[in-house]
């Protein structure tokens, strides 16, 4: 296990170097001059050139990238072109909202997806199974921005049961939980659909296995057979999907944060891209990529607790 974790951390470093190069290159060749945006429409050419020199934008590409990597290795993600604020501080100010939204969304997805998948497998070809299949197809197909807008119109505008947007209240308060409901459902619906289909397929495979037939032959109650023997063995592929979806949710909150006016990392990235704030974009992408790889590492570790037969030696 220790060896696997060490190997994964080395892979993480190589992956982040590759991601940083791709992101830096895409920002470098992207149209638009950060110095022109910072200087404003009334600035003279000499003012723009002075800003470019101050930011080091006139240096060759490899010099700029080397300077950036050197800063990252020393824990410095640079300073925002817009606010002059350290990139790390700006991201950490917004990250709690993104993390709360991702956790709430994956909780919604797991509760709906796992329960629906298990019941669909137990009652294969029933009306519930058919309804679950329709829900899964709809959940994967419906865009987040459309679903979020519809939920706002129904529950916030017409019924006035939940707030329109924002995420500025502590999550442990009643108002904070209300603010999380609509964006969590919006973001978690697609993940719930995928988890439901995987749970159903995995459970169908397990409940037809010989050891389940033996457990039933011993006279065990059906509830014990399903929730103790079958579920644990069916959870390996389901946990993989949950882990991948949680990683995607951490980096895929952009549209939902825009719809519900949530000041998270996703919305920060949109604003930074529009302003050609290269350090902010690069720092945000590196954070999301790091979290995604760490989530997958945690999933691999969880495997060994669910199924002791799994070994990484």
UniProtKB/TrEMBL annotation:
The keyword Ion transport applies. The chain crosses the membrane at residues 12-30, 101-122, 134-157, 177-196, 234-255, 285-306. It is a multi-pass membrane protein. It is found in: Cell membrane. It comes from the Bacteria. Keywords: Cell membrane, Ion transport, Membrane, Nickel, Nickel transport, Transmembrane, Transmembrane helix, Transport. Residues 95-303 form the ABC transmembrane type-1 domain. The keyword Transmembrane applies. Gene3D superfamilies: MetI-like. Its main location: membrane. The complex is composed of two ATP-binding proteins (NikD and NikE), two transmembrane proteins (NikB and NikC) and a solute-binding protein (NikA). PANTHER family: DIPEPTIDE TRANSPORT SYSTEM PERMEASE PROTEIN DPPB-RELATED (PTHR43163). Belongs to the binding-protein-dependent transport system permease family. OppBC subfamily. This is Nickel import system permease protein NikB. The gene is nikB.
